[in-house]
Amino acid sequence: MVQRHVLYLGEINDTQELAWRRSIAVLEDGAAQPRTLSLFPEDHCERLLADASIVRVKLSELRLRRPRQWGACWLALLLWRELQLDQFWCKRLGVSRKGTRWDQVLFVLVAYRLLAPGSEWRLHREWFQRSALADLLGEDAGLAEIHKLYRCHDRLLVHKQAVFDHLVGRWRDLFNISYDVLLYDLTSTYFEADPPFPEGDKRRFGYSRDHRPDCVQIVIALIVTPEGLPLAYEVLPGNTADKTTLRGFLERIERQYGKARRVWLMDRGVPTEEVLAEMRAADPPVHYLVGTPKGRLTRLEKHLVAQPWQEARPGVQVKLLPQQGELYVLAQSRDRLAKERAIRRRQLKRLWARLKKISTMQLTREELLMKLGAARDQSRKAWRLVVIEVAADSATLSYRLDRKKLRQARSREGRYLLRTNLVEEDPAKLWSHYLLLVAVEEAFKNLKGDLAIRPVFHQLEARVEAHVFIAFLAYCLHVTLARRRRG
Hints:
This protein has 487 residues and is α+β, with helices and mostly antiparallel strands. It has 18 helices and 13 strands.
């Protein structure tokens, strides 16, 4: 059925309906006078024109049966085709001996991850029937049989690098994207599963960005452009240290795009001194802009004090310190200063009130320590600014503000020490580049939030990686739509 909006009559009540019944006129071919017809004919259909193109409908007998989500499914298919992923996967996955279109099964998995993420079992039992994917693809419910959904996962990973290459070309054709600036970062996602796992399995205990050290996890490394378009990712063992991952990605991008003048943006903790030295010594040099731990700020503080502040842009001041082929940039942002100071004040006020309340409670020493631990978890930044002493033989405590640490914290709020080998770059441009790291953070937020990469229900490691791959494809559709929306 194809619907077309002809005329909007507005909202009408029963009295208006009766009036409208007397005012609808139809002029027949060859007739001198128009004939009045009922707008809502119900049971007196005999007065309608004898025309086969007219469908007689009794509104009182209309029933809504098996409603399906159409618009979002249609949009997902449109984005899939715009990235030419339908052509890409049709060539590589093909058709099974029983006629299963594996490329269409994959699209169903990706659309599900984009629109209503959940388990494959829910997709099979519930969601596919409530979507219009069968209508759009010209298939039936057999496309979402549970064994097909799982078996499709097993066919994907061998094509991962080919997908990266394909998407790079499509990003360039659709949005005229250059790859002069690349953002690199890592995240982790955990599993509520019980080890041990097979030897060499990537699900390991490690540093958890989700604050779940009790769960095994995998680490996901991702490269995106400043526009948020993903170029590549890798699934790493859960105990992988951030600083051990960069060298492999540098080599991969160099093989894929050549030795062009390229700037890598990274957060602190990702590169090691050894890797940064290799980037400076490369021919041509590989440029980088990286955040620096605040411990280095302490070591350079004496040198930076002597440097004058420069206005990089309204609300942002910088100090520049060249050292051994590198440039250290101490940036101070008025907006970030206000934000971080407000957060610190709020936490300190909450912690102080909590300590005051705890000090008045009648507790055992063990109960006191438990409550102090809970207070620390709620206000970790403020906790470092307070000196708390608990008596060794009783449940009494004293607390006071550490004014030296408070002065140091105030002096560093809103300030960031950046490090780069772009020694001739405009400081305002360097600061703008560093702010682009929010793009990779937004990608991780979407993967974990809107696309619900977690929880992961698969038990086999290969299917876990395929699950991440499907989420990556869904994110590609998501970010393509965002780019189109921005024009």
